[in-house]
Structures are given as structure tokens and as C-alpha cells.
Amino acid sequence: MTTAFFYDEQSFWHSGGNYSFMAPVGGFVQPAATGGLPENPETKRRLVNLMNVTRLMDDLKVERAAPASQVDLIRVHTGDFLTTFRKTSDAGGGETGLRAPYGPGGYELAALSAGQAKGALFSVLDGQYKNAYALTRPPGHHCLRDWQNGFCLLANIAIAVEAALADGKAGRVAILDWDVHHGNGTEAIFYDRAEVLTVSVHQEHNYPLDKGDFKDRGEGQGDGTNLNIPLPPGAGHNTWLQALDRVALPAIRNFKPDVLIIACGFDAAAFDPLGRMLCSVDTFRQMTRRVVDLAGDICQGRLVMAHEGGYSETYVPFCGHATLQEMSGSTIDAPDPFAATLKIRQPGPAFEAFASGLIDEMAAALP
Ligand code: ZN
After folding, report:
1. How far is the CA of 162 from the centre of ligand 1 (A)?
2. Of 139, 22, 138, 207, the residue nearest 31 (C-alpha)
3. In angstroms, what is the span from residue 90 Cα to ligand 1's centroid?
4. For the chain, which end, N or C, has fewer CB atoms within 10 Å of the first or last residue's CB respectively?
5. Which residues have C-beta within 8 Å of that of residue 353, sequence separation ≥ 6?
6. Exposure string (b/e) for 344-366, b if CB count within 10 Å is 16 or more?
């Protein structure tokens, strides 16, 4: 059984038109060189390229799925939202939400991205592959049913999950979001749903500024099936692993899902311009090892990752390479050029004790 890697070259063509964004990756006043879009295609293209250079790609099964269909999209998004998005895209692009611009073809490229998430999930649920990674671009975890934000144009993972539930391929799904930003879209879509557990580990009050609190546990039938683990800026390798070991993974284990999906952002890495965390390649390697093991224990190894953020075009490829290496069990490594530096830059014992105390409080508050 192999690991599948779903991607489409066209996803790198998604652009933001003549767009300027007031953030460190946006260009400030003058549009960024990367097609005006702060969400830089080079981070993901370079991951593909690095895996080709090391030949890790030869140990994966490369796949390309069809775009998500209208039926798939309408399970998650409102008809008015989809109509406005399509019209604006056909007219040359624009921005119909907040911080989520797109150019001509934006609609089709977003449907193609959601299709990769669906293809990856279905391939694992059908038993075709041991696990699968979808290089989804544009990303999806911020997108609400009727509102685009944070570079996310369609809710990729939610679209894939609803398709799998509708087809009876899965009954219970757990989603762990380790992007440094809160998975507000995924949370909102499944907030009242008992059969989908959403867990987000993120930097507190980064993006969105007012979402992602620990107290937000879901509502109605979904009461208890949403879990936020906000971490203070400056947290590094040990704190992120503790957040998984002591809060996120026990909750997922208790939930007993049929499949585990990771909203895989690499913006908790130390060099990311849109996060203030200190994770390294090894953090992503260790987190991946843990979710591979957990999936093996509780859902016959069924694990799917969909790419979210990550804005350092030099460092994301190494984080992604380690993730795919761990998922596939390949022996092909791409050593982290910054490993020694980031080991020294980790927070000191006082911070670690403080962060550990916060995690203790969250762990103690869970049933
Ligand atoms: Zn992010």
C-alpha cells in the first residue's frame, strides 16, 4: 500500500490579479511579484520540485483528481455565494470576500483544488491507498459557507467530507487543523454536527483575530465536537507536540473516527512571515509520525492531508518533504538546512513551563 500525492500543475496558476495586501507577504502598496497574491504559489511548487530532486516523488503515487462538481459544492456552499463567485471569476476576477482575491478562472481553479481533497479522501476510503496528501491550492480552511476569507475560496476539506458522508463512504470524520491560523471555516461548517470532530491547534488571536477560543466547543448536536487549542506566540517544537499528545490526539482517539484528515499548514514554522511560532521540519515530522500512528490504531491507518497555508518559499518545501516522507515510510530524506539554528532558537524553560501549564488547563477541562 502506497501513499498518494494529489496535485495539478494548474493550481500554481491561481493568482490574485493586481492586488496589494497589507501584511509582510503582500508587498505593501505595490502588489507582490507573485501575481499579486500573498499566498505564494512558489511554496507549493517548490515542494513538488524538491520531491522531484530527491526522488521522494518516485516513492509516491502521483494522482490528479477531477474538479469538485456542482453537486459537491452545493452541499457546503450557498447557491448565491457560488453564483456570485462564478460571475466575478468569469468577469476577470476580483474579491468577493476579505483577503481572498482571485483572477480569471479563479472559480475553476478553486473547484480543482477542492477536487484534489475529495480525490485524496475517496482514494483512501476506497482502500486504493494507505494514505494520501492533496496539494490543495487555493487553500480552504478559512472559507465559510457563504464568505471567502484568508486566501480561501472554497472549503476544500468540508466539500470532501460532505461528499464522503453523502456517499456513505464514512460515518464519522475527525479533522485536525495544525495550520498556525484558526480553522474558522471548517469549524463554522461543522459546528452543530455530531459526526464530524473539528480540532484546531493555532497561534491565539492571529487570524481571524476574534476566533479560535478554547471555550468554543460546538453547539446543538455538535456540542463537544469542536475543539480549539490556542497557543501563545513563540511556542516551538515541544509545546506543539505536547498540544497534540495531551489534548488533540486523545480527543480524536475518543471520537473513534472512520478517517483522520489533517488541515496541513506549514506556517507554524519559525521562518513563516504570517506566524510567530518556532516549529521546525522536525516538528512536522514528529506530528506526522503521531497522526500516522494514531490512524493506525483507531481507523485502519486511514489518513488524508490537505495543504493549507505556509508562506516561506524556502522552508515550506523541507517541512512538506519530511511530512510526505513520514506518511509514505520512504527512506529518502531532505535534511533540514536550519535544524541546528532552530534547535538553539527554541524557547527557554520558563516559557516551556508556562505553555505546559496552559496545556494542562486545557487537558483538564476535557471530559
Ligand atoms: Zn495559515
Report:
1. 23
2. 22
3. 27
4. C
5. none
6. eebbeeebbeebbebbeebbeee
Q: How many domains is the chain partitioned into structurally? A: 1
- pTM here is 0.98
> What integer best gives the mean pLDDT of the chain?
96
Q: For the segment 70-86, what is each residue's pLDDT rounded down to a tens digit?
A: 999 999 999 999 999 99
Local structure of residue 220 (DSSP, 8 states): G
C-alpha 168 – ligand 1 centre gap (Å): 31
The crossing angle, in degrees rounded to 10, of helices 156-166 and 106-125 is 50
Report the CATH number that the domain containing residue 288 is assigned in CATH.
3.40.800.20
Residue 100 CA, distance from chain mean position: 16
Report CA(311)–ligand 1 centroid distance (Å): 8
Place of cell 513563516: 272
The residue segments making up the domain with residue 11 are 3-365
* 75-131 tens-digit pLDDT: 999 999 999 999 999 999 999 999 899 999 999 999 999 999 999 999 999 999 999
**Alpha carbon of residue 266 to chain centroid:** 8
- Sign, CA torsion 162/163/164/167: positive
- In a 3-state reduction of DSSP, which class is residue 316? helix
Distance (Å) from CA 179 to ligand 1 centroid: 5
